[in-house]
Amino acid sequence: MSEEPTVRLDTDGKPIGFIDHPDDYRTVTYEVIEHGIGLLTLNRPGKLNAFDERMIRELRSVIWNVNFDEKIRVLIITGAGRGFCSGRDILGLDYENNLPSPQYRAYVRANHEMLDDIENMEKPVISMINGICAGGGVEIAIASDFRTVSEDAEFVLTENNIGVIPASGAASRMIQMIGIGRLKEMMMTTMPVDAATAEQWGLANRVFAPDDLLQGTLAFARILAERAPLALGMAKHVINTCQNTDTETGRLIERLGQSVLIQSEDSREGNAAFREKRKPDWKGR
Question: Could you tell me the domains of the chain?
Fold first, then answer.
């Protein structure tokens, strides 16, 4: 009798892994919008793309698959309709907020793991903010590497209005991004931050007119898609890790990362292309 395979693969030979992959996506859509660039759209426009338990599972499924798709070099996340994401669906909070504290922490960890999936993906992730970005939507945006923002978009942390705090990364990720005083202002006043202010604070990387948002984001994504993919992934890991460590440990992490990259096929290709004055042909290996 043959043994069960130890690793489950899909029809394309990619690992299915530990993620719940739905048969169909109801709350998100995904497409390869152009060569090397994937577009993940939060698709509950009637709820301003608030995420519920199903959307968390679908987001994690798409992110898992993009990780293993060597053709995709950059992922863009955006929202359908007039907003990016209004945060956690309030109806889901009715259940989790009535759990005992240990069970609450276990349940909410899955939400945190979805955001960690975005942050830890070894490919650049751009959140394209096309309107209101509130609560957990801000936490999706700041788990991404970059934020391209429509001029009419706003960032707002509204959790104080229901007597709680944003607790899925807003404090831990944004404190170094925008500074402790600005973070306290967002969390404690619940006042919105417009696109121009977000750019000034370092929360937005690029700001575009609404009609130019998609093309401006794609132009930025194309720049990233042309870069050496292994080095991009390593840069992301090193930078994210170094922000939480001392400088001596940070330099050790840099050396370790570089010691891996110099052994890669892409490193040899990059050096050869430089000497031969041609464009490198990156393989991601």
Answer: 28-225 (3.90.226.10), 229-276 (1.10.12)
